[in-house]
Design a protein that fits this description.
The protein has 114 residues and is mostly helical. It is built from five helices and no strands. It has one domain. Helix content is 80%, strand content 0%. Helix 2 runs antiparallel to helix 4. The protein is elongated.
């Protein structure tokens, strides 16, 4: 094999690995927008500490909802899950449900046995 042939093969392999079904990756502006949204959600989570009494029974569901939204945004945008196989999406979602289930069991345990 000549150097030219090897270079063409390497370029072809690189192109095949970086092609994601014709979808363009997000721009830098999109990443900054997502980071701002994540920062706002984090600020809301911190703010729940100051409104704990007013939220009452809605505190844990509100925090769980914000957690799920932040998880989804991070894995879909920053981990590029949108561009990967659906198998990876199923793996991340099952991990999320497992984490929520473990957290719910731990909260229940502390509530009933604490």
């Amino acid at each position: 094999m000549t150097d030219d042939t090897v270079a063409r093969e390497v370029a072809k392999e690189y192109e095949a690995q970086t092609e994601h079904e014709g979808r363009a990756h997000p721009s830098d502006r999109s990443y900054v927008g997502i980071a701002v949204i994540l920062a706002a959600l984090t600020a809301l989570e911190v703010a729940t500490y100051y409104f704990e009494e007013q939220l009452g029974g809605f505190l844990v569901p509100a925090l769980m909802l914000m957690m799920v939204v932040k998880f989804a945004m991070v894995v879909m945008w920053f981990m590029h899950l949108r561009f990967d196989s659906n198998l990876f999406t199923k793996m991340f979602v099952s991990g999320l449900f497992l984490a929520i289930g473990v957290y719910a069991v731990a909260l229940t345990t502390f509530k009933f046995f604490g």
